[in-house]
Amino acid sequence: MKLRIITLLTLCMGSLIGPAYADRIKDLADIAGVRSNQLIGYGLVAGLSGTGDGKDLQLTGQSLRALLSGLGVSVDGPVSEFDLGDSLVGLARQNANQSLQTDNIAAVLVTAEVPAFAKPGQRIDLNISAIGTASSLRGGNLILTELRGIDGQVYALGQGPLSVTGVSASGAGSSVEIGVPTSARIPNGATVERIIESPFEDASHIIFNIRDADFSTTHNITSAINNLYGAGTAMPLDSVSVAVIVPSNPVQKIAFISDLENMEINPGEPTARVVINSRTGTVVINRSVRVTAAAVSHGTLSVRVTAFNAVSQPQPFSDGITVGVQDADIDIDEQIGAMFVFDGGVELQDIVDALNQVRSTPSALIAILEALKRSGSLQAELVVI
Q1: Which residues, other chains included, contact 192 with Cβ-Cβ below 8 Å and sequence gap of 6+?
Q2: Which residues are CB-contacts of 202 (< 8 A; sequence separation ≥ 6)?
Q3: For residues 300 and 164, which has the higher predicted lDDT (pLDDT)?
Q4: Predicted local distance difference test score (pLDDT) of residue 349
Q5: Domain ranges of the chain
Q6: Which of 29, 64, 211, 289 has the fewest C-beta atoms under 10 angstroms from its C-beta?
């Protein structure tokens, strides 16, 4: 059964063809400086049931030795270079690393995202990814790990049992894997230890950054704020940013920003755009798309080759032999393509109705839109993902 995308477009987009609608400022813009920050750390996961890195990765053994040494545990006796030659020292150290059983240990990278204004003691989620030869992290426990920011400072500490959704099993030469067993999460697995400094508290003004750059949207936001709070309160900087003067008192500042975020304004009309996903056949046309006068005809040419076997018999008394031969039939079928005409300036509903009349499939729709764009009749940006 053929997929139908045009009907879906009619249902989803039909309600958008009409007067402008209002959105809250908080749904259109972000406040500069109010952002999350990324943290990263290196750690060890212990307690694995033989699915760890093993002896193939020396990094795991070295990390375990360093961890135990920091806890006051001497894994191996000291090796003196005075007593042994250089080659023997290297061999002794290598044997010392290999003497540690790391089948139940895995080296991992730990990442986290700290929300804006996070305070010490708050909990954040952790993402765990194996970086060695471990086959699964199921059943493991993350050992205390430092999480650092881009400046190298420690901002959080993480530890706890892993939550793994993937599973793998093998036996008798067969294996099956569901999900990714070498990736895990720890909900609320880290504690924030340091405040990430933000200029928000001392700032005399804030800046709204529009998510979709548009001069009309920044102008409308500026006009709405100035009409309500007085001229000069807001000033547009460019197609993305609007600067707003805020009170210096922290309580008044929070209340003022809350009122600003909930103000409703009419955003600018979006750029005419057609988005095509060539892998799934999905086509999305926004309400600003227009088509100039054009005539479109679309047909399908199919070629079918059918192979069959036959037998070639020799003539009587010719001393020939019977042989098998392969033959083929070739059929060419070209469907009649219905032609339809777009009048100049038609809107989304007209495009949908015309394409529905000729029963366009997703692949045919993509071909028609690309041809319209090439001919200069489609007044929109064509985006293929």
Answers
A1: 114, 118, 119, 120, 121, 122, 123, 124, 155, 156
A2: none
A3: 164
A4: 63
A5: 6-16+272-384, 23-34+205-265, 37-192
A6: 211
